[in-house]
Design a protein that fits this description.
mainly alpha, 4 helices, rod-shaped, 81 residues, 60% helix
């Protein structure tokens, strides 16, 4: 068995407390709501992309577009390229 000095015991206790805290806290909700993914047909995906590009041309905020169409803001930004 290994002997630990006072500083090492305190450090070990800190890690143990942090692990307990992380395990007890509930997970945060995802950015896009319920976290379920939708599989779209090619036609639906093309229509969605068209709607996003049209909204971006009208200078509608990304967050508003994402919530309206049910996609993440990152997806909206990705289509700008």
């Amino acid at each position: 068995m290994m002997k630990l000095n006072k500083r090492e015991r305190e450090l070990l206790q800190t890690f143990a407390n942090l692990a307990h805290k992380l395990l007890e806290t509930p997970t945060r909700p995802r950015a896009n709501g319920n976290g379920t993914r939708r599989r779209r047909s090619a036609e639906d995906a093309a229509e969605l992309k068209r709607q996003i590009r049209e909204a971006r041309r009208k200078n509608i905020p990304v967050k508003e577009i994402a919530t309206k169409l049910g996609v993440t803001p990152a997806y909206v930004y990705q289509l700008q390229r």
